[in-house]
């Protein structure tokens, strides 16, 4: 069985500070015991979110407590050779949660909230503690051992003018070769302003007609992963 299959076949994956001496917090312990109803002797994956991971055995102490038997071996997965990202204008809380969750599961490494001309959502929807928890839960679900990063919000001009690898998801603009793009930017509900289109004309037209921003982000994420990591 390959290492990746060991992670897939495990009952669950959890994140810990030290893979060699894994300790669980109360919330994770409750989830394993009460939600997943793990059994004594079952295998789970532990990871530190920085590429280190191991397969460990559960030891049930009582109805409210369990321990993880320290692993004999800690595995190391290399970091992605090229980090792939989604930039997005702040959305409603539910939509932002969905975007982070699904793009994490697809394989995106970086999330860049950007404030655009037509951004009309309060950045309170970008509470970092909540989004990091979604990143962790989604990464555990799909057995990722490198946690994505949610970056602080920044103004769109400050963001795209410092990078040559960014393209907008838009109907209007100069077509780009995805091999040269590592970040796709999703505009707000009002779309991109004419000035923003002129400042960064590089554009990727996504399948479909007018997509919700959270849907467009998932489609863009799949395109990036397909261009850079599949096959």
List its salient traits:
eight-stranded parallel sheet; Ribosomal Protein L25, Chain P; alpha/beta; 231 residues; five-stranded mixed sheet; 31% helix; elongated; Alpha/beta knot
Secondary structure: elements and pairs:
Elements lengths: L2 H7 L3 E3 L10 H10 L7 E5 L4 E11 L2 E5 L5 E2 L8 E4 L4 H14 L3 E6 L12 H14 L7 E2 L3 E2 H5 L5 E4 L4 E2 L7 E4 L7 H6 L2 E3 L8 H16 L3
Parallel strand pairs: 1-2, 6-7, 6-12, 7-8, 7-9, 10-12, 10-13, 11-13
Antiparallel strand pairs: 2-3, 3-4, 3-5
Helix pairs in contact: 3-4, 3-7
Explain what the structure shows:
The chain starts with a helix and ends with a helix. The relative contact order is 0.15. Strand 3 (about 50-60) and strand 4 (about 65-70) form a beta hairpin. The chain folds into 2 domains: about 5-75, Hypothetical PUA domain-like, domain 1 (Ribosomal Protein L25, Chain P, Beta Barrel), CATH 2.40.240.20; about 85-230, Alpha/beta knot, CATH 3.40.1280. It has about 230 residues and is α/β, with parallel strands linked by helices. Helix 3 runs parallel beside helix 4 and helix 3 (about 95-105) packs parallel to helix 7. It has helices at about 5-10, 25-35, 95-105, 130-140, 155-160, 195-200, 215-230, and strands spanning about 15, 45, 50-60, 65-70, 75, 85-90, 110-115, 150, 155, 165-170, 175, 185, 200-205. The longest helix is centred in the C-terminal third of the chain and has 16 residues, at about 215-230. The mean pLDDT is about 90.
């Amino acid at each position: 069985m390959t290492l990746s299959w060991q992670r897939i076949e495990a009952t669950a994956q959890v994140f810990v500070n030290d893979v060699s001496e894994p300790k669980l917090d109360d919330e994770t312990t409750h989830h394993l015991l009460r939600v997943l109803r793990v059994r004594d002797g079952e295998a789970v994956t532990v990871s530190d979110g920085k590429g280190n991971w191991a397969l460990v055995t559960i030891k049930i102490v009582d109805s409210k407590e369990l321990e993880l038997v320290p692993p004999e071996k800690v595995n190391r997965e290399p970091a992605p050779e090229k980090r792939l990202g989604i930039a997005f204008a702040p959305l409603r809380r539910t939509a932002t949660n969905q975007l982070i969750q699904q793009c994490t599961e697809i394989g995106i490494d970086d999330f860049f909230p950007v404030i655009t001309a037509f951004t009309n959502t309060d950045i309170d929807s970008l509470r970092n503690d909540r989004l990091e928890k979604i990143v962790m839960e989604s990464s555990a679900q799909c057995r990722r051992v490198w946690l994505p990063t949610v970056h602080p919000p920044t103004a769109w001009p400050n963001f795209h003018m410092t990078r040559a690898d960014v393209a907008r998801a838009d109907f209007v603009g100069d077509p780009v070769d995805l091999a040269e793009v590592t970040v796709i930017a999703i505009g707000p509900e009002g779309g991109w302003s004419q000035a923003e289109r002129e400042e960064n004309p590089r554009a990727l037209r996504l399948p479909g007609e007018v997509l919700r921003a959270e849907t467009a982000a998932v489609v863009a994420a799949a395109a990036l992963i397909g261009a850079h990591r599949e096959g």
